[in-house]
Every structure is written in C-alpha cells, then in structure tokens.
Amino acid sequence: MAALYFDAPPPPGLSILAEEFPTKLAAFNGLTRDMREAGIVIKALVFPDNKIFVDHQSLDLLSRRFGHELRGIRCNAEGRLARNTATIRGIGVVWFTLLKEQNK
User: Fold this and answer.
1) What are the start-end ranges of the E strands in 9-56?
2) In angstroms, rounded to a whole number, what is the distance separating the alpha carbons of residues 73 and 92?
3) Is the pLDDT of residue 7 over 80?
4) Which residue among 8, 10, 23, 50 is buried most deeply as judged by most CB within 10 Å?
C-alpha cells in the first residue's frame, strides 16, 4: 500500500520592504531589550518565526515582570521535553521543561 504525504510549503518570509516589517521588528527588539533589562536569560532569538527562547530558570523573573502581559499559554510534548509557549506583545516566548514521568 502506498502512502501519500503532503509537505506544506513554508510560509512566505517577511520582506524588509513589507509595511509590517518595521513594526514587527520594533516590537521584537523592544521585548528582547525589556527581557534583558529584567535579567531574563535569552537562549535564542528567531525573528523569522517571531519567537524568543528563554532559559527555564528565568521563569520566575518572566512571570513577575511580564505576568500581566502573558497571553495564549500552551504546552506541547516533544520527546522527553515539554515545549511551553506564551505570547507576550504578540511574540512567542518559548522555554523547555522536562516532562514528569507518570506512575503506572
């Protein structure tokens, strides 16, 4: 039996000529700057995906400084890790935590 797989085309990249580029870049840089000033450890910045990856040990600082701005918190299992994402100012803030084993 043959299987047919469809690969979705990647979303079009954000052109520097697009009207929304300066606004999105300013918001991304502003949140990055505010996080660094708050002492949050940033692991990676991925502007094309609109994501900032932070160290899980900075979550206390993140919740104290940006708790009132958190929107759309979600969690997905990826192997032995949980990928947690919260939206702050329209930007995905991501951190990884270990999944807890379930007793059988």
Assistant:
1) 42-46, 51-54
2) 9
3) no
4) 50
